[in-house]
Amino acid sequence: MRCPRLRLTLLPAVALVATLTPLPAPAADKPNIVFVMADDLGYGDLGCYGQQKIQTPNIDRLAAEGMKFTDFYAGSTVCAPSRCVLMTGLHTGHCFIRGNGKFNLRPGDVTVAEVVKKAGYTSGMFGKWGLGQENTSGLPAIQGFKSFFGYLDQTHAHNYYPSFLVRNGKRVALSNVVPDEGKYGQGVASEKNEYSHDLIFADALEFIDQNADGPFFLYLPVTIPHANNQAGKEGMEVPDYGQYADRDWPEPQKGTAAMITRLDADMGRLIEKLDEHGLSENTIVFFTSDNGPHREGGNNPDFFDSNGPLRGIKRDLYEGGIRVPMIAYWPGKVPAGTVTDEIGYHGDLMATAADLAGVEPPRGLDSISLVPTLLGNSENQEHHDALYWEFYERGFLQAVRKGDWKCVRRNREKVELYRLSEDIGEEHNIADDHPDVVAEMVSIMEREHVPSSLWKPRGKKQ
Fold first, then answer.
1. What is the DSSP string of 378-423?
2. What 3-state class would DSSP assign to 37?
3. Which positions ≥6 away from 192 have C-beta within 8 Å?
4. Spatial separation of the C-alpha atoms in residues 252 and 254, rounded to whole Å
5. In whole angstroms, what is the distance from residue 238 CA to residue 157 CA?
6. Closest C-alpha to 396, from 290, 317, 320
7. pLDDT tens digits, 223-271
8. What is the pLDDT of residues 26-72, one digit of tens each?
9. Per the domain annotation, does 222 fall within a domain?
């Protein structure tokens, strides 16, 4: 929801008029910000969230030594809109990119990177962007990032062995061979020499080396464990199955597990890199996912119970499609071993990063700072009145989370209501029993949907 007032607890705020005004502060008061976002990682895919088969010891350690969120949400249930919400602090009823496609952020869209740049941060982005094609206003360099390496296009990002990646707007040739390569670089390689995830993560670690004097904002939206959709049932592309090679599992499940454990090892390397430079106590690390688990590339999310106790997967607005892991790690600042049920979502990165950096975010956002919760001062935490989502595949879907209530509506007609404390799996629709609650939730849906020339809802407005 739009927040008329944001409580900033670390530094005093100044009014934002035509530009974002930086606040003077010693470097020590401006922590480095690292935001790692997995791709299609489910709520139940990590050991610290109940996973039994896939090994994630490094990420589990971050949760044990940091803060784990139980009620944290993605900006959307698919790639591009989730990233748009994350970068702009506007939910899918207000942001520009509300679904997958070849859309570009506009020059007037303000990203997290642009906001923290006003506080002297250097921003680097490594992985899948999904918010701007080549030679458009949506390029990361135009949207506040000094360094970029990875995929601009989400279809290109399906291919883990592409013939090229993009560095700062220019294509960098790789030694992989992709016959019948698509317009955007998608396809299946016949010669697999360079694994894109490894290249991208190496560049991210080098960014830390180059900016160790800080402050820096490192945005690392990796592609693991997304599938290569062009590869059919062999879409879980990974160099090797590692410790899962001898398991009596279907091949795609070996690939899924190997991908997640590979990312886990890289998270260990990232923390080691921060330690190497003595940055751990002045760096906050976030780890999350862009949406729920997928059923693509041969992957079966039921095999690992990837959505845990939740209903639905990617492309659903049930909890399994949008509730995601969120871990915050900041030794000495974020209380170790804490678990919070504070309701937050990707759009809160904007206000949170601005708070940490000591600048005010743009006005009129759907974003609140989670810094009070992160620092153990929950009594000072401002709360969302409600969270809202809309999605345009499979009809026009809307959802609202307000306190303990969750409402889902299709095509402005079919309404479902759930009480999450009693029914986290959203199995029992109790809409008929609570017409007053349904009316309130529907009014929120109508209020928070702002018409867009790109996105046309189905169904009659109620």
1. GGG----S-EEEEE-SSS-EEEEEETTEEEEEETTTEEEEEETTT-
2. strand
3. 161, 176, 237, 239
4. 5
5. 14
6. 317
7. 999 999 999 999 999 999 999 999 999 999 999 999 999 999 999 999 9
8. 345 799 999 999 999 999 999 999 999 999 999 999 999 999 999 99
9. yes
Which single residue is written with the structure tokens 């993560």?
201
By the 8 A CB rule, do 31 and 394 touch?
Answer: no
- Spatial separation of the C-alpha atoms in residues 283 and 288, rounded to whole Å: 16
Please report whether residue 248 resides in a domain: yes
User: Which residues have a Cβ under 8 Å from the Cβ of 308 and sit 6 or more positions away?
Assistant: 42, 43, 44, 49, 50, 320
Is there a domain that residue 4 lies in?
Answer: no
The pLDDT value given to residue 457: 87
In 177-239, alpha helices (H): 196-210
Mean pLDDT, the chain, whole residue set? 93
Q: Which pair of structure tokens corresponds to residue 326? A: 């969120």
The answer to whether residues 319 and 435 belong to one domain is no
Q: How far apart are CA 54 and CA 52, in angstroms?
A: 6
Would you say residue 378 lies in a domain? yes
**Nearest residue to 223 via CA among 203, 237, 206:** 237
